[in-house]
């Protein structure tokens, strides 16, 4: 995330007219500060954290599907036993 902020700040700096480039350090520092402050308020997660959570979700879905299938199998197996005991 830090590299992306630096890249954005650098691109903003490069878009300035040459006369303003003399203020490079101050401007880049200010651009970074403003970008960090605004991005922090957005409550974003890093790509690595997002990918990790996506993998956790994928594993959870696979486990849920396996459990749903197992429950359906157990219910199907229990029906004949329950039907035989409830009939007179």
In the predicted model, the low-confidence regions spanning at least 5 consecutive residues are none
By DSSP, the count of extended strands is: 0
Shape: rod-shaped
Q: Count of helical segments?
A: 3
Structural class: mainly alpha
Determine Rg (CA atoms, Å): 29 Å
Main sheet attributes: strand count, strand direction, barrel closure = none
Mean pLDDT: 82
* H and E order: HHH
Q: What oligomerization state is this entry in?
A: single chain
Straight-line distance between termini: 71 Å
Please state roughly what percent of the residues sit in beta strands, choosing from under 5%, 5-15%, 15-25%, 25-35%, 35-45% or over 45%. under 5%
Report helical residue fraction.
Answer: over 70%
Written description of the protein model:
This protein has 88 residues and is an all-alpha fold. The chain has a domain of 44 residues. The protein has three helices and no strands. The protein is rod-shaped. The relative contact order is 0.07. The model has no long low-confidence stretch (mean pLDDT 82).
Short recap of the structure:
The protein is mainly α and 88 residues long. The protein has three helices and no strands.
Write the layout of secondary structure elements.
Blueprint: H1 2-14, H2 24-41, H3 47-86
Helix pairs in contact: 1-2
């Amino acid at each position: 995330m830090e590299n992306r902020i630096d890249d954005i700040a650098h691109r903003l700096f490069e878009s300035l007219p040459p006369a303003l480039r003399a203020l490079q350090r101050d401007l880049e520092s200010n651009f970074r500060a403003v970008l960090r402050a605004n991005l922090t308020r957005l409550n974003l997660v890093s790509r690595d954290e997002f990918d990790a959570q996506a993998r956790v979700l994928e594993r959870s879905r696979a486990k849920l599907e396996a459990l749903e299938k197992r429950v359906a199998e157990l219910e199907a197996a229990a029906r004949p036993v329950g039907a035989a005991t409830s009939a007179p």
